[in-house]
């Protein structure tokens, strides 16, 4: 039986209950009582801190052990499945949906009253081969995508609070990425995807999620034009996600990122930092790299805290022990032993609104 521990939120959860929630009766502890689905989190004032979320994958939940779960429950308030909700994972063959892995993460989140960000419905990666290698007419591929979005969003209706509906539609120079969706359906695929997702769950908040738009540059300008156009067309877009996959030598100044967020906030949208991590590998002294990384975490968090419409910062994982870019890059707030790094303290400090 694992000892109790007090969450920073003043809640107490037994680790066994956490495992009970994940492994069911196998952990011999009664699973935590199912709690009502949390209300959508909104910052009621600029003095309220943005919420902190984390990307989680089923491998880590199942194998990383109690320190992973303890760190997640103690410090994070929302969950994004890292890859279990990608199309290749959910509909590997046409008409055959495999929700098991993603359902496990959603069930874990709901047992701990943690809202879930669904990620992602339409992307140019993780597309199953039966779609990629099909010889589709526009109408046929629209039907494929419509059926997929309707089935997935309906399955998670009332359990997934937000969706990254369209992920990374733009190239670095601000043109539409030539995904199969763009090539066969055309740019309308973006608006269609949002309308289909909204029809399947009118209460979910729908996001367009992009990377590399954290600077005032052509890609960000193109994103603003795309989003403004969707808004003007009455497309049910509820938010924009800025992924913020950053590097020690590639990160926006705080004033620039804050300015970008303010520009999108003026459209009346909810904003989130959706995939924050900072590549901090290299040969420079470790202490210097960790200090530089911490400064970047603080910049991003403070930029979000300064703009009331920016309601959440999600880090793309918790610990350097499990990151898509490799442990050597030390990109996350906790080290491989789940000890807080300078980045963790900087992230927390940056999330605290000033004034
Ligand atoms: O599919 C297998 C699964 O069956 C197996 O049990 C598991 C064991 O580790 O591996 C799975 O494979 C890989 C998975 O990551 C887990 O490592 C997938 O093949 C691989 O494609 C997947 O990569 C993910 C990638 O998106 C593509 O989905 C990364 O983890 C994930 O961090 C990355 O995240 C993306 C965001 O979705 C969009 N923004 C950029 C970000 C980084 O690329």
Describe this protein's structure.
This protein has 355 residues and is α/β, with parallel strands linked by helices. The protein has two domains: 47-76 and 243-355, TIM Barrel (Alpha-Beta Barrel); 80-206 and 217-223, Alpha-Beta Barrel (TIM Barrel). It is 39% helix and 16% strand. The chain has 13 helices and eleven strands. Strands 3, 4, 5, 6, 7, 8, 9, 10 and 11 form a nine-stranded parallel sheet that branches. Strands 1-2 form a two-stranded antiparallel ribbon. The longest helix is centred in the last third of the chain and has 21 residues, at 286-306. The chain binds ligand G3I. Ligand G3I binds at residues 59, 82-83, 86, 125-126, 167, 211, 243, 275, 324. Residues 59, 82-83, 86, 125-126, 167, 211, 243, 275, 324 line the site of ligand G3I.
């Amino acid at each position: 039986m694992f000892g109790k521990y007090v969450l920073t939120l003043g809640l107490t959860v037994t680790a066994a209950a956490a495992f009970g929630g994940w492994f069911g009766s196998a952990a011999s502890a009664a699973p935590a009582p199912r709690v009502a689905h949390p209300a959508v989190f909104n910052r009621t004032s600029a003095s309220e801190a943005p919420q902190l979320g984390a990307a989680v994958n089923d491998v880590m939940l199942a194998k990383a052990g109690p320190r992973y779960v303890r760190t997640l429950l103690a410090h994070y308030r929302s969950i994004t499945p890292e890859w279990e909700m990608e199309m290749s994972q959910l509909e590997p063959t046409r008409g055959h949906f495999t929700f098991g892995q993603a359902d496990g993460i959603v069930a874990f989140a709901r047992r701990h009253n943690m809202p879930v960000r669904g990620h992602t419905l339409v992307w140019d990666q993780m597309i199953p081969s039966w779609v990629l290698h099909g010889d589709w007419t526009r109408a046929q591929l629209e039907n494929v995508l419509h059926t997929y979005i309707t089935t997935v969003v309906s399955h998670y209706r009332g359990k997934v609070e937000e969706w990254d509906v369209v992920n990374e539609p733009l190239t670095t120079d601000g043109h539409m990425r030539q995904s199969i969706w763009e090539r066969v359906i055309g740019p309308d695929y973006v608006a269609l995807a949002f309308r289909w997702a909204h029809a399947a769950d009118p209460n979910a908040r729908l996001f367009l999620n992009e990377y590399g738009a954290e600077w005032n540059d052509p890609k960000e300008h193109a994103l603003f034009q795309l989003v403004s156009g969707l808004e003007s067309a009455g497309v049910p877009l509820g938010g924009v996600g800025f992924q913020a996959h950053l590097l020690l030598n590639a990160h926006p100044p705080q004033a620039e990122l804050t300015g970008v967020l303010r520009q999108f906030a003026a459209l009346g949208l909810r904003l989130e930092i959706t995939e924050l991590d900072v590549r901090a590998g290299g040969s420079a002294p470790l202490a210097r790299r960790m200090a530089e990384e911490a400064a970047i975490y603080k910049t991003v968090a403070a930029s979000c805290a300064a703009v009331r419409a920016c309601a959440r910062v999600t880090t793309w994982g918790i610990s350097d022990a499990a990151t898509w870019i490799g442990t050597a890059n030390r990109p996350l707030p906790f080290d491989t032993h789940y000890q807080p790094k300078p980045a963790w303290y900087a992230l927390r400090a940056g999330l605290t609104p000033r004034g």
